[in-house]
């Protein structure tokens, strides 16, 4: 399969045409309209500072269905102690900045470039991008952010400055999404961390079908 080059025209090739590793297209921009179109079609941007914008749709796709959330006994004890104050959409800019600064297991640097931060902050202002904050004594110690469209939540990144902070934020988010009857949480690619929470890999074809229905739900 070829990797497509995007023009200024607001469109994407079908996600199932991505190459084996998941790369679908190169170029385009990070306008709110293009980003929302991408997520609606099971596509997301992921690239480094010195690269052009790269658009991906992996196969398989890691997905967490809210009703399948698993919480370990040790984490349940942490949650029961109520050591974190969890809020929603109170510090989006600070959360995405912290995610960009977080050290990653796969090496130095971040894919959350200044351009990406500006784009997602604009999506937050428009009501699509959301953050979950974990605080201790008023200090931001963990959190995550992602995109909500219809009844689908597309997770992007998380950070933790204190043990279990991002885990408690994530559990709180999924419980909240369950109450709102969200269909799925897109976790993009496999990580053992999210597998332990109950996320599982599904074929891209299945994911695309489920996303198409979920984003249309009110």
Mind explaining what this structure looks like?
The chain has 218 residues and is an alpha+beta fold. It has 2 domains: 4-59, Alpha-Beta Plaits (2-Layer Sandwich); 62-214, Aminopeptidase (3-Layer(aba) Sandwich). It is 32% helix and 26% strand. The chain is built from 7 helices and 11 strands. It has a 7-stranded mixed β-sheet with strand order 6-7-8-9-10-5-11, with helices on both faces. Strands 1-2-4-3 form a 4-stranded mixed β-sheet, covered by helices on one side. Strand 3 (44-45) and strand 4 (54-56) form a beta hairpin. Helix 3 runs antiparallel to helix 4 (114-125). It is globular, with a radius of gyration of 17 Å. The termini are far apart. The model has no long low-confidence stretch (mean pLDDT 95).
Which descriptors would you attach to this protein?
218 residues, alpha+beta, Alpha-Beta Plaits
Count the helices. How many?
Answer: 7
Which stretches of 5+ consecutive residues score pLDDT under 50? Answer: none
Strand content: 25-35%
Q: What is the CATH-assigned architecture of the largest domain?
A: 3-Layer(aba) Sandwich
Spatial strand arrangement across the major sheet? 6-7-8-9-10-5-11
* Mean of all residue-level pLDDT scores: 95
Provide the fold topology.
Blueprint: E1 4-6, E2 23-27, H1 32-40, E3 44-45, E4 54-56, E5 61-64, H2 73-81, E6 85-88, H3 92-101, H4 114-125, E7 129-136, E8 139-149, E9 152-160, H5 165-179, E10 184-188, H6 192-195, E11 200-202, H7 204-214
Parallel strand pairs: 1-2, 9-10
Antiparallel strand pairs: 2-4, 3-4, 5-10, 5-11, 6-7, 7-8, 8-9
């Amino acid at each position: 399969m070829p990797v497509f080059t995007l023009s200024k025209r607001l469109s994407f090739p079908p996600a199932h045409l991505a190459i084996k590793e998941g790369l679908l297209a190169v170029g385009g921009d990070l306008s709110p309209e293009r980003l929302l179109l991408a997520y609606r079609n099971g596509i997301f941007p992921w690239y480094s500072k010195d690269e052009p914008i790269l658009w991906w749709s992996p196969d398989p796709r890691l997905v967490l269905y809210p009703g399948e959330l698993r919480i370990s006994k040790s984490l349940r004890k942490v949650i029961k102690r109520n050591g974190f104050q969890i809020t929603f959409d109170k510090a989006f800019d600070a959360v995405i900045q912290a995610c960009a600064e977080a050290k990653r297991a796969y090496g130095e640097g971040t894919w959350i470039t200044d351009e990406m931060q500006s784009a997602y902050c604009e999506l937050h202002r428009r009501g699509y991008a959301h953050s979950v904050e974990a605080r201790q004594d008023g200090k931001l110690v963990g959190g995550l952010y992602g995109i909500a469209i219809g009844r689908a939540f597309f997770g992007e990144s998380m950070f933790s400055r204190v043990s279990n902070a991002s885990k408690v934020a994530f559990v709180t988010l999924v419980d909240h999404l369950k109450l709102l009857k969200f269909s799925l949480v897109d976790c993009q690619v496999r990580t053992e961390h999210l597998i332990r929470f109950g996320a599982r890999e599904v074929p891209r074809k299945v994911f695309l079908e489920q996303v198409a229905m979920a984003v249309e739900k009110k």
